């Protein structure tokens, strides 16, 4: 399989999942400024939408949505327990969390990436994103991971996008306006996830700094 990624982007999530599972995946870096891969391939021929992540299967089939990709990968090795079994209520709760992270957290960052052009909209978008993170912080008050006692694909997604914010305890990969300094439960969770071997391996494979 081939996973197309951009350094420090949301594609870090399936990158971590692939390493957690020990899957044989080729990681292909994409430059989203000119939409070419490290090998010079036109990325629009891989994903017509032009965004990452994209997962190309051995048979040539393609998946292009992160929250689907991580579940597909997890289901390849169900014994690793990165996602509950399909059809169970626990799986629907995981999908609920992934949808929340996609629509309320991930998309909440978009105006912050384009702060100059977004102008006054930042005053609306930033407080909403701060509220969502406050909820996550409270959610983590009595559990080590998003879904409870077990590390899951949801944690990889939150880890990837949280790296776009700022805090003394966080290695930020983007210059956005949101700060997490006061979110103590988020901080403890972040340190817990970052200590995982597969997470550190993925960060280094993307050419990013651990600290």
Description:
The chain is α+β, with helices and mostly antiparallel strands and 211 residues long. It folds into two domains: 2-80, 3-Layer(aba) Sandwich (Glutaredoxin), CATH 3.40.30.10; 89-196, Glutathione S-transferase Yfyf (Class Pi), Chain A, domain 2. The protein is built from eight helices and five strands. It has a five-stranded mixed β-sheet with strand order 3-2-1-4-5. Helix 1 runs antiparallel to helix 6 (153-162), helix 1 packs across helix 8 and helix 3 packs parallel to helix 6. It is globular and about 45 Å long. The chain starts with a strand and ends in a 6-residue tail after the last helix. The mean pLDDT is 95.
CATH class of the largest domain: Mainly Alpha
Name the shape in a single word: globular
Determine the CATH topology of the largest domain: Glutathione S-transferase Yfyf (Class Pi), Chain A, domain 2
Poorly predicted segments: none
User: Helical region count?
Assistant: 8
The chain-level mean pLDDT equals 95
Straight-line N-to-C gap:
30 Å
GO molecular function: glutathione transferase activity
Domain GST C-terminal: 87-211
Protein name: Glutathione S-transferase
Family: Belongs to the GST superfamily.
């Amino acid at each position: 399989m081939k996973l197309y990624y951009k350094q420090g982007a949301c594609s870090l999530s399936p990158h971590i999942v692939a390493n957690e599972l020990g899957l044989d995946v080729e990681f292909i870096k994409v430059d989203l400024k000119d939409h070419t891969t490290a090998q010079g391939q036109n990325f629009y021929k891989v994903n017509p939408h032009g965004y990452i992540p994209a997962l190309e299967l051995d048979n040539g089939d393609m998946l292009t949505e992160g929250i689907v990709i991580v579940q597909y990968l997890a289901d390849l090795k169900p014994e690793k327990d990165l996602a509950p079994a399909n059809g169970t209520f626990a799986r629907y709760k995981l999908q609920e969390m992934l949808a929340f992270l996609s629509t309320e957290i991930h998309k909440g960052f978009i105006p912050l990436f384009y702060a100059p052009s977004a102008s006054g909209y930042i005053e609306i978008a930033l407080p909403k994103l701060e509220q969502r993170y406050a909820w996550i912080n409270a959610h983590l008050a009595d559990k080590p991971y998003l879904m409870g006692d077990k590390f899951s694909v949801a944690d990889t997604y939150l880890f990837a996008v949280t790296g776009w914010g700022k805090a003394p305890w966080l290695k930020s990969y983007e210059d956005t306006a949101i700060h997490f300094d006061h979110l103590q439960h988020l901080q403890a969770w972040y340190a817990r996830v970052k200590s995982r071997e597969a997470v550190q391996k993925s960060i280094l494979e993307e050419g990013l700094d651990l600290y």
